[in-house]
């Protein structure tokens, strides 16, 4: 089969489409003949070697295609071996495409529990874009933060896949959503997904500007995928919840302890999600009018290098897709 293989760590140019062996059959697993795969920032970190993926390696966490054992149209949940404890993943948990071949290929092998029927009405590109960002946003907003109808949410970074999905899910259930971005165009695009507005994070006073946009009130929930905790806390109301799921801008943060506990804030860490979270996401999609995942662009598998360059440039709004067959 064809796959985007990397034999070393580095920039986008280390990805080369080559012939690799088909996945081997094994008990408890199935093979999905992929129609599309979606790029995630996580894939960039894999490519650079941050997760010490064994080489040669095929990256990719997200995908949709045909389950070859049943003939069903399916989406792939990239959260492997979460375990029975819903509060946190088990010791053996891993993300598809970290330590075993991922979805930048014509076929991928996954545990049977990690395939679910493709939601009706989604194209192959939209279906491939759903699993990682969908389950991550669902777990962050609902399993962890307990977001409810009528509450307010601030999503940092309007253009990313998790951010666009979070806006869509939260607005669908009746939350008031604002975003931050470096681009007015991306804020306008977030409005099309249900956001009430947004502010530019290029202004040092963006937390206060966000509060002012929200009728002068702090937010019930802030979703932070960039690692700017101290600023995010400034945007929260007393008793609000800060949900952290990334560190794209900062790996370390210093917090003033006394204001934190006097404000009764809650700091919640989260990542990916369990099969139960994925089931909850699919139920939510069936019950509410949620827009499909936003697709920025589609590329043939042979153009994987250009797709990664677009992802790293930060110009995309929504998901970048590889057409694998």
From TrEMBL:
Residues 10-322 form the Enoyl reductase (ER) domain. InterPro entries: ADH-like_C, ADH-like_N, ER, GroES-like_sf, NAD(P)-bd_dom_sf, Zinc_ADH-like. SMART domains: PKS_ER. PANTHER family: DEHYDROGENASE, PUTATIVE (AFU_ORTHOLOGUE AFUA_2G13270)-RELATED (PTHR45033:SF3), PTHR45033. This is Zinc-binding dehydrogenase.
């Amino acid at each position: 089969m064809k796959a985007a293989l990397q034999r070393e760590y580095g920039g986008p140019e280390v990805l080369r489409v080559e012939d690799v062996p088909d996945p081997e059959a094994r008990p408890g697993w199935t093979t999905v003949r992929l129609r599309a795969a979606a790029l995630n920032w996580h894939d960039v970190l894999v490519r650079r070697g941050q997760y010490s993926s064994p080489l040669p390696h095929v990256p990719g966490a997200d995908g949709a295609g045909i389950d070859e054992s049943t003939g069903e149209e399916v989406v792939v949940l990239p959260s492997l071996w979460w375990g029975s404890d819903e509060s946190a993943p088990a010791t053996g948990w891993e993300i598809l495409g970290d330590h075993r071949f991922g979805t930048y290929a014509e076929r991928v092998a996954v545990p049977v529990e990690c395939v679910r029927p493709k939601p009706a009405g989604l194209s192959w590109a939209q279906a491939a874009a759903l699993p990682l960002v969908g389950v991550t946003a669902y777990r962050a907003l609902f399993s962890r933060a307990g977001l409810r109808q009528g509450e307010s949410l601030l999503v940092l970074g309007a253009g990313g896949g998790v951010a666009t999905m979070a806006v869509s899910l939260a607005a669908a259930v009746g939350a008031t959503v604002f975003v931050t971005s470096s681009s007015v165009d991306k804020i306008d695009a977030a409005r099309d997904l249900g956001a009430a507005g947004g502010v530019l994070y290029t202004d040092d006073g963006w937390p206060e500007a966000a509060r002012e946009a929200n009728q002068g009130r702090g937010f019930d929930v802030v979703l932070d995928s960039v690692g700017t905790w101290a600023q995010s806390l400034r945007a929260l109301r007393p008793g609000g919840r800060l949900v952290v799921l990334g560190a794209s801008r900062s790996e370390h943060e210093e917090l003033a302890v006394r204001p934190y506990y006097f404000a009764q804030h809650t700091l919640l860490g989260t990542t990916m999600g369990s099969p139960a979270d994925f089931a909850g996401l699919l139920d939510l999609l069936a019950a509410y009018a949620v827009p499909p995942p936003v697709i920025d662009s589609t590329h043939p598998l042979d153009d994987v290098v250009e797709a990664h360059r677009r992802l790293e440039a930060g110009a995309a709004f929504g998901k970048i897709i590889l057409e694998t067959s």
